[in-house]
Amino acid sequence: MALTKILSTSLGPNGLDKMLVNKVGDVTVTNDGATILKKLDVKHPAAKVLVDLSILQDDEVGDGTTSVVLIAAELFRKAQTLIERGFHPGFVVRGIKAAGKEAYRFIQKNLSTVLTESDEEVLRNIVRTSLVSKIANAETDIAKKRAMAIVNSGANVLLSSEGIDDLSEKYFLQHNLFVVRRVPKEDLFKLAKATGGKVLCSVSDFDTEAIAASELGTAEKVYEERIAEWNFIFVSGTRAQAATTVFLRGANLCLLSELERCVHDALCALSRALESGSVTAGGGATETALALFFKERCLELEPELCATYQEFGEALLVIPRCICVNAALDATAVVAKLVATHAQSFADAAYAHRSFGVDIDSGDVRDNLRAGVVEPTQIKLKAIRFATETAITLLRIDDVIRCAPKPQPAGQPTAG
């Protein structure tokens, strides 16, 4: 498929970027699969299914959008090969569904490494991004006559979602109260959560104009700092929990947009790893282990189902193969060595080489789990599941029928 040719060169650390230009000339430079597919003008119905698949993967786990499309397309291609060899489509569909379920269970049982929040080194390997502290402490929407109630509460920082009138601002200035106005409401709630404070719509509790001490947030330091051409408010040492933000700087908007997408994917990967509590080795290690698992599993199956399992495993090898091609390596030799290394794991029950994947620096294979090339298990599981379901959806279609256009009202001119 044309889509896989576009996406395959974007996979892996050495994947290339795509420059997308819309009708008005706006330029987007990215190698993120979901972004590329969203902006493509796709006409073919089957290709649109793959676009939806990428969007679903992005919405569910935030990463793995390129891999899931490549796996789904390769599964479909391998299944088509079986059908051309005389296998009934219904039988191929059942085989792919069964193989997908077994792959899901095999990853959970044999390829996942338990992760805890205390595994800081593993978390750093999942997302290598520098984080800085973010703003804290919030109160909101203060009327002029209630300004002194805020001052008397003991607060020394005030953040408001609206503007602040001059008279109230004068009182705050006289009492050394640091004021930030027109803060987005979404940020106010995040700040309140970080500092242990409370977002208030009013300082009135029917009888008195007052703010309880329990409603104030706490932070060690609040200051303003200029970065490039913008002023930012920083608060460090929040009481309730740490809040972080990421500052991205680049030469142009195209670069900044791509950096933002990269950070988003990295944070999604970190979040999914902590949620699922486990990680798997990257660099094609998981896919190669599954391919060998299906090869061994075929020894226990009838010949017809065995063929489907073998093709499923071969389809998964598209991931290490694309990684090698994009890194200018001999894909045939490296993948063959990777398969041979994983084959040793199946000679014993311990799966000692289960985490071996491609090393793009040396052009060899290595233990990627030990090297810090890891991915959340949830991303791999979702990719297998969604790719399998999409391939099955496409295989169940035996014809594409163009619907008749809607009849136009009488008297309305027709095009052409």
Write structural notes for this entry.
The radius of gyration is 28 Å and the shape is globular. The protein has 416 residues and is mainly α. The protein has helices at residues 2-8, 33-39, 45-60, 65-84, 89-111, 120-126, 147-152, 166-174, 185-195, 253-276, 285-297, 303-316, 318-326, 331-345, 368-371, 377-395; strands spanning 18-21, 27-30, 113-114, 132-133, 157-159, 178-180, 221-227, 230-236, 244-245, 278-281, 356-359, 364-367, 374-376. The chain has 16 helices and 13 strands. The protein has two domains: 2-125 and 276-395, GROEL, domain 1 (Orthogonal Bundle); 132-245, GroEL, CATH 3.50.7. The strands form six sheets. A three-stranded antiparallel beta sheet has the order 3-10-13, sandwiched between helices. It has a two-stranded antiparallel ribbon with strand order 1-2. Strands 4-9 form a two-stranded antiparallel sheet. Helix 11 runs antiparallel to helix 12 (303-316). Helices cover 49% and strands 12% of the residues. Strand 11 and strand 12 (364-367) form a beta hairpin.
Task: Using brief descriptors, characterize the structure shown.
mainly alpha; GROEL, domain 1; 49% helix; 3-stranded antiparallel β-sheet; 416 residues; 2 domains; 16 helices
Main CATH class of the largest domain: Mainly Alpha
Number of helices: 16
Q: Please report which band the strand proportion falls in: under 5%, 5-15%, 15-25%, 25-35%, 35-45% or over 45%.
A: 5-15%
Assigned CATH superfamily of the largest domain: GroEL-like equatorial domain
Mean pLDDT rating: 76
**Termini distance?**
33 Å
CATH architecture descriptor of the largest domain = Orthogonal Bundle
What is the count of β-strands?
Answer: 13
Order of helices and strands: HEEHHHHEHEHEHEHEEEHEHHHHEEHEH
The main β sheet shows up as: 3 strands, antiparallel
Strand order in the largest sheet: 3-10-13
* Count of distinct structural domains: 2
Helix content: 40-55%
Category by helix and strand content = mainly alpha
**Morphology:** globular
Q: Which stretches of 5+ consecutive residues score pLDDT under 50?
A: 128-143
How large, in whole angstroms, is the Cα Rg? Answer: 28 Å
